[in-house]
Amino acid sequence: MHLALRPAVWLSLLASATLAFAADAITPTAKVELFNGKDTAGWVTFPTEASKDTWSVKDGLLVCTGKPNGFLRTEKAYKQYRFTVEWRFTKPGNTGVVVHMTPPDAVWPKSIECQGMHKNQGDFYFWNGATLAGGTELKDKKTGKTRGYRLGKQADAEKPAGEWNTFTTVCDGTTVTILVNGKEVNKATGANLSEGFIGLQVEGGAFEVKRCTLEPL
């Protein structure tokens, strides 16, 4: 037997889930490696079934095939942190670090994408209700509705495909800063998100990850 819930009830349940999610966001107090070099313990894949062969661990490296589109995200939500991933493309491709990911999981959820695409590392994309101060509005070509916002990188510090790049995202309140190989390349301010899951994006490019380090500010 299925009982239909009134819209007000659904909204109440959604609001309760959102509040619980926000209350659970962790502020790190010590440096921790989120990738243990052995498996994906502590992470969630999406889409779950389609992504079962997307990620593997070989010789201590986290390996991604780049297909299908989705992500590997942390089980826990975080706020006020510095997240560093050391990665490389085997050939030019596309990925990203997605921060302040908000439930429900989707391609793509309400979140802030820190672009990791080859030759574009450092761009920002704010998706599905995420906003910032400034940026360029992105509209759906068919509906004309706003899809998100883009803020292009202000500098370039990326190494060629095949070499390891160190990509750092600093999340401090409503400000998100991206550093590539130690150089600040972009900063977004006035975001309407300040906490959430952290994800590694799958978007067509095979890549390898050496480490995922979370640190307090």
* Beta-strand content estimate: 35-45%
Order of helices and strands: HEEEEEEEEEEEEEEEEE
Number of domains: 1
Overall pLDDT score: 89
CATH topology: Jelly Rolls
List segments where confidence is low: pLDDT < 50 over at least 5 consecutive residues: 1-5, 8-20
Question: What this model shows, in words?
Answer:
There is one protein chain. The protein has 217 residues and is mostly beta strands. The chain has a single domain, classed as Jelly Rolls, CATH 2.60.120. Helices cover 8% and strands 43% of the residues. Strands 2, 5, 6, 8, 9, 10, 11, 12 and 16 form a 9-stranded antiparallel sheet that branches. Strands 1, 3, 4, 7, 13, 14, 15 and 17 form an 8-stranded antiparallel sheet that branches. β9 and β10 form a beta hairpin. It is globular. It starts with 6 loop residues before the first helix and ends with a strand.
